[in-house]
Amino acid sequence: MAAKLIKEQSRIAFVTIDTYRIAATDQLKIYADILDVPLSICYTPQELKITIESLLNYDTILIDTAGRSHKNNLQMGELKVFIDSIRPDYKIMLVSANSNPQEMINIYDSFSIIQPNCLIFTKIDEVTSYGQLFSFLEYSNLPLIGITDGQRVPEDLKFPDKEWFVSKAMREVFE
What we know:
With about 180 residues, the protein is α/β, with parallel strands linked by helices. The protein has helices at about 1-5, 25-35, 45-55, 75-85, 100-110, 130-140, 160-175, and strands at about 10-15, 40, 60-65, 90-95, 120, 145-150, 155-160. The protein contains seven helices and seven strands. The strands form two sheets. The protein has a four-stranded mixed β-sheet, covered by helices on one side. The chain has a three-stranded parallel β-sheet with strand order 2-1-3, with helices on both faces.
């Protein structure tokens, strides 16, 4: 997302609260260096709030959170405390398109504690049918703002409109 925003002349900053995974901050630091954008690492909700306030002169602040198991209530509660401390405009939920339909619903139900307000399907290149994606969109009522269909950054992040998505699904049905 950052690379696409930079192409649009946006001034962006990175913030990460992903101090859970080994080397997660190192990986994001590499991207930040490549894109020549600032990166802040926050360990507490209060630190996150202060950091966000210091970055308000940027057009967009992208906050990286740790991938969390939707089955771990403690981790979900910790994430909610961070999110509630800053009340971001957008809380983008990423859902793997190759998940089974019931698992997608379980993931959404658990993450609804933070009230996501838009969605990106990841790994769309790994699915052969799209029915479960349409069902999930209807269930969650979240607007789809993007998809990923590969590992290349940023080329494989796309922001298709509804017509593209429906057209792709219909091509799969009739091929």
